[in-house]
Amino acid sequence: MTDTLDMCRIDAGLLYSLMETQARYGDTGDGGIDRQVLTDAHRDVRNWFRGELDARGYSVLVDDIGNLFGRIDLAGPDAPLVMVGSHLDSQPKGGRFDGAYGVVAALAAIETLRNEAKTRHLQPSCNFVIVDWMNEEGARFQPSLLGSSVYAGGVTRDFALSREDSDGKTVESELRRTGYMGSDAAPQSDIYLEIHIEGDVKMEKAAARIAPFVRHWGALKLRIEVRGEQNHTGPTPMEARRDALLGAARIITEVRALADKADDTLYTSVGRLDVSPNSPNIVPGNAVLFSELRAPEPEILERAEAELRSALPAIAKASAVEVEIVSVDRRPAGKFDSRLVELTEQVARDFDLPTMQLDTTAGHDAVAVNAIMPSLVFAVPSVGGVIHRNDEYTAPEDIAAGGDVLVEMLRRIDAARGDLDRLGESI
């Protein structure tokens, strides 16, 4: 076990201060935040964070899909580049920890490393970049992980820019409106780290303090349109109705049934339903469902998708409507870098923090970036497993413990000159 006196602990005062300040932007007054991507509140928190980076001497960069980077070169132009971050956008009426913790912890960790190097007269061997990805959440514009997916080559920039919200505004128009249509070249990193709250109760139940995500589940996101016929809810005979919402309701039931009867682990949901014209006195003429299927193995998703597709014609016939799958987004299952998993666990043990390994069922920007570089997300506990809600909460001691692990991981990666195969020599 490493002597903790030789280990690096995060500047907890800076971390707490940054956490408190970011939570003021989009504050809902009940403990939560609402700053969906490219809204005024999201623009304002990004402007504040840019100011924090600039004041500390970082090179502030914004690429042409709106990802925000703060780069600090501590080791010269040809040194390895380590990227750390997450996202500052939120769900509607979401929590103040999801995403934002990863961004501000990145700044606090790198600032701690800089101060450590100055105090001990050390020369770092790596350069660092903090990232705030554009549209991780996918609440306003779909799909999620949009900025990181463009960065990693998973989707094209033109596709991302053309995404529309429910009011018909595009990503491109809102990037320009908020001042985040950048032109800087995105830094090409060698390693990516992200810290997050768990959003589940597994860690809490196991009394674990740190948990690296070993696998990321696959996700299938289907937008399904149901087309009926608009009519009056009073005089229109029941047998003459082509109720789009009735068809949508039957699809929602089928989506849930997929999970209930699955032979293996499958999570399903319909999290959003757009109904038109959405009047209590009109038989709905149109409904659009936003459905998600998530599973750890590809074959589970393939089987569930096939079952859903095969069920739709009968639902359409029974409801006297037309049903069409209008878009499909696929996110494959995979594994994070095992060397970074091992490093997380080793550092946590050296801090005497209990660990456990987890899968992430949720999407994170690291999932997209994992396709092009060694990446990892690790988690700290969420009280009650709450996430995407105003009462989302992680205790200050866990916020600080996660920061300690993050900064010490970065210190050891730096000691290994960014070579993950040499990490054992620096532990």
From TrEMBL:
Coiled coil: none
Ranges where the Peptidase M20 dimerisation domain occurs: 216-317
Required cofactor names: Zn(2+)
Keywords: Hydrolase, Metal-binding, Zinc
Positions with a binding annotation for Zn(2+) 2: D98, E137, H388
Lineage top rank: taxon: Bacteria
Hydrolase listed as a keyword: yes
UniProt-listed NCBIfam families: hydantase, PRK09290.2-1
Family: Belongs to the peptidase M20 family.
Descriptive protein name: N-carbamoyl-L-amino-acid hydrolase
Organism of origin: Poseidonocella pacifica
Lineage: Bacteria, Pseudomonadati, Pseudomonadota, Alphaproteobacteria, Rhodobacterales
